[in-house]
Amino acid sequence: xxxxxxxxxxxxxxxxxxxxxxxxxxxxxxxxxxxxxxxxxxxxxxxxxxxxxxxxxxxxxxxxxxxxxxxxxxxxxxxxxxxxxxxxxxxxxxxxxxxxxxxxxxxxxxxxxxxxxxxxxxxxxxxxxxxxxxxxxxxxxxxxxxxxxxxxxxxxxxxxxxxxxxxxxxxxxxxxxxxxxxxxxxxxxxxxxxxxxxxxxxxxxxx
Amino acid sequence: xxxxxxxxxxxxxxxxxxxxxxxxxxxxxxxxxxxxxxxxxxxxxxxxxxxxxxxxxxxxxxxxxxxxxxxxxxxxxxxxxxxxxxxxxxxxxxxxxxxxxxxxxxxxxxxxxxxxxxxxxxxxxxxxxxxxxxxxxxxxxxxxxxxxxxxxxxxxxxxxxxxxxxxxxxxx
Lengths: 207, 172
Hints:
- The complex is a heterodimer.
- Chain A contains four helices and two strands.
- Chain A is mainly α.
- A two-stranded antiparallel sheet of chain A has the order 1-2.
- Chain A is rod-shaped.
- Chain B is an alpha+beta fold.
- In chain B, 34% of the residues lie in helices and 15% in strands.
- Chain B contains five helices and four strands, in the order αβαβββααα.
- In chain B, strands 2-1-3-4 form a four-stranded mixed beta sheet, covered by helices on one side.
- In chain B, α2 packs across α3 (95-106).
- Chain B is elongated, with a radius of gyration of 28 Å.
- Classes of the chains: A mainly alpha, B alpha+beta.
C-alpha cells in the first residue's frame, strides 16, 4: 500500500547501478503484443504450479479466518473514527459545549460593551473640558484686549495732562521779554560737587 | 542577512512566535482604524507597529486591514463568522492594554489551547510508520543505525531468506 516503486523499475535501477552493456536480467514487459514468440519458447505450454489439495484446504480455512478478522478490525476502526467525528459535531457534549461557549461569548461581548461605554464617557468629559477651556481662553483674550485698550487710553490721557501742565510754563511770544528779564536777573551757579548719595557737598561762590 | 529598518527585532521568528493572541475560529476579519498623528492615537499606532505582526503570524487565516486618518478617534473592529461585528474603542489606551483587551474578548483561552495541543499529540504518534504526510518514517531502514534498505544496498548473504532455508535444509 505504501510502496513507491514497482518491480519493473527496481530491475532497471539495478542495471544502471552496475553499468553493464549486456542485459543479464530481463526487464518485464520488454516485448509488445505483436512481437513473435522467442525461438526457445516455441512449443512451450505454460502450466501453473501444482496445487496440493490438503494444503489448499488448510490454507483456504486459515485465509478466510484471517481475512474475516482483518476486515472486522478495519471496519471497527473506521466506525470508531466516524463515531468520534459525529460525536464531536452533534453529540450531547457538543451541544452543551456550544451553549457554554455562546454564553461565554455573550458575557465577553457585554464586558466589551461596558468598556466602550466607559471610554465614551471619558471621551465626552474630555471633549466637554476642551470646549470649556477654549471658551475660557476666548473670554480671557477678550478681557486682555480690553484691558490693553484701557491702558493705552490712560497712558495717552496722562501724556496729554502732562503736556498741558508743561504748557503753562512755556515761553510764548507774549512773555518772551518778561522771561528774558527774569533769566538775566537771576544768575544760576552750576559749579557744584556731589557725593555718592547725590547730596551737594561743595559749591563755588557766584560772582 | 542584516537587520533592516527600525526595530528589526519585529522580523525575527522568536519575536513572532512569542505572540499570544490566537483568535477563536469564528474571527475572520480584523480592521484597525487609527490616525498617524495625535496623542490619543499613540497606543493604536504602537499596537499596529509592534503587535500586529505577531497576531498575523499566529493567525495566518485572519485578514487584517489597516485604515489611516479616516476617523477622528481610533478603534478596532472584528467581523465574525455569523455576521456579528465587535467594536473595540482604543482611544487613549496603551498598546499593551489593547492587546490584553483583545486577547480577553476574542482570544482562545489557555485551557482550550492546551486541549488542542494534547489532541494534536495524540493524533500524531511519532512511533507510527506510514506515508510521509501522516508519519515521520515509512520504513525502519530510514532510521540511523538500522539495516540499510535492501533496495539500495543488497543484504549480506546470511540475512537473506533463501540462504537461511538452504542452511536449514542442509542441516536436516
